[in-house]
Design goal:
Layout (H helix, E strand, L loop, with lengths): L3 E10 L2 E6 L2 E6 L2 H5 L7 E10 L4 E6 L2 H11 L6 H10 L2 H10 L2 H5 L6 H30 L5 H11 L4 H11 L6 H14 L1
Antiparallel strand pairs: 1-2, 1-4, 2-3, 4-5
Length: 199
């Protein structure tokens, strides 16, 4: 499978890109969120890719942000959502907006997306809620472990709260409410727990 491409854009015709990588031209379909952020000229870019193999076609989808690719892949697992609809969703709103509408159960907002009717919107809300939580947890866990040595007190506090059994998004919220730059890790943890107990 092709997971990443680094090369120069030869042609832009939304939703398609022609990307030259070492003399080979790859046709890649991308959401408008990727097109908006593409550099001008012939600068080299990196696209995170997803390859879809069907009986009648092999399609390659590209994204500037790994989070967009993760959401795209998650959308493909929803019953009735294919590559075209997943691209339309990513083109119609940011991943943060989509997550907000899913968590709040906003059927009307999702129905404004092309090709998404009421039943599809309801299915998206039901099937994507847990997946978005998992994606957020994985993203936060990556940030925590990627910080390595010399981590800040707030990152260490989040890590400690996760070890105590709190979910990463909840731990992050708990720390962000109480954290101040001059605090050490133990103080942040103690205050986060005290604040949680009050609430």
């Amino acid at each position: 499978m092709i997971g990443l491409l680094r090369g120069k854009i030869l042609l832009k015709q939304p939703p398609s890109l022609l990307l030259e990588v070492n003399g080979v031209g790859y046709e890649v379909e991308a959401p408008m969120s990727t097109f908006y952020d593409l550099p001008d000229g012939d600068q080299e870019i990196v696209l995170y890719t997803h390859m879809m193999v069907r009986d009648d076609a092999h399609s390659l989808f590209g994204f500037l942000r790994e989070a967009d690719r993760a959401l795209f892949r998650s959308l493909l697992r929803v019953n009735g959502v294919g590559g075209k609809m997943a691209l339309a969703i990513l083109s119609g709103m940011s991943t943060d907006e989509f997550a907000l509408f899913i968590q709040s159960g906003d059927v009307k907002a999702l129905c404004r997306l092309p090709g998404v009717g009421k039943k599809t919107a309801e299915r998206l809300i039901i099937e994507m809620r847990d997946r978005l939580d998992k994606m957020e947890e994985n993203s936060l866990a990556t940030k925590i472990t990627g910080a390595g040595q010399g981590r800040s007190a707030d990152a260490d506090a989040v890590s400690a709260l996760v070890a105590l059994g709190y979910k990463p998004p909840e731990a992050s919220r708990m720390v962000s409410v109480v954290f101040q730059a001059d605090m050490d890790t133990e103080t942040v943890i103690r205050m986060a727990l005290q604040n949680k107990a009050k609430g």
